[in-house]
TrEMBL record:
InterPro entries: AB_hydrolase_1 (IPR000073), AB_hydrolase_fold (IPR029058), AB_hydrolase_sf (IPR050266). PANTHER family: AB HYDROLASE SUPERFAMILY PROTEIN YCLE, MONOACYLGLYCEROL LIPASE. It comes from the Bacteria. Keywords: Hydrolase. Residues 26-128 form the AB hydrolase-1 domain. This is Alpha/beta hydrolase. GO terms for molecular function: hydrolase activity.
Amino acid sequence: MHSAVVTPEGDRIRWVELPGESPARVYVHGLGASSGPYFTGVAAHSLLAGRRAMLVDLLGHGISDRPDGFGYTLEAHADALAAALDAAGVTGAEVVAHSMGGSVAIVLAGRYPELVSRLVLVDANLDPLTPERGADGSRGIAAYSEGEFLRGGGWEETRKRAGGHWWATMRLAGRVALHRSAVHLAAGSEPTMREQLLKLELPRTFLLPADDAPLPGADELAASGVSVVAVPDCGHNIMLDNPEAFVRAVAEAAE
């Protein structure tokens, strides 16, 4: 396990590495998740092996620290991730990022272009969301006030809706971190993640479940150079539901 201090208060981001050649391939998980459980199997696949692989846990998640004083905006997550990559000696990485992690990766690429050479976004959030009581995922978490989530039953209600797999990693996340990350993900960035993605000047691939195609705004994304790839036989967790197709898509994006 590796780590780096990423805040003035000494909070650490931690990650697991698979050895290999540069440039690194950096894997970033989604809200309430952890990169190890979501990405280790595909990162070690023969089509992707041989490159240095960093399975990074964002602040507040997984094996990283869970400071309550951190803001957990997309920009703050991106800045902390940049500090970790800089400490790890990474430049020009290929970033493979899922869901909220994809939103963070877009912001990272815009703010720190020297750190990112390619983006592979895995069903990432591109637009602000409308919080909704009882909804699944980040929309449901963001519908609570912080007090409601921490002390008014929101955490327990979210646990009941999460499902076994998501709960396995969500229970490792800090509760403040989970709520604030969801709120800021729902609010989005300024400019929006989609607007930033359209303007980036680097290779970009967006993977989505085939059942969810067509991706809203796919024509505009394609016109800006984003390769939109529909992956069959999967849901939101593409790398877990159809790892072989996921690996092929990531490998093709790197060609």
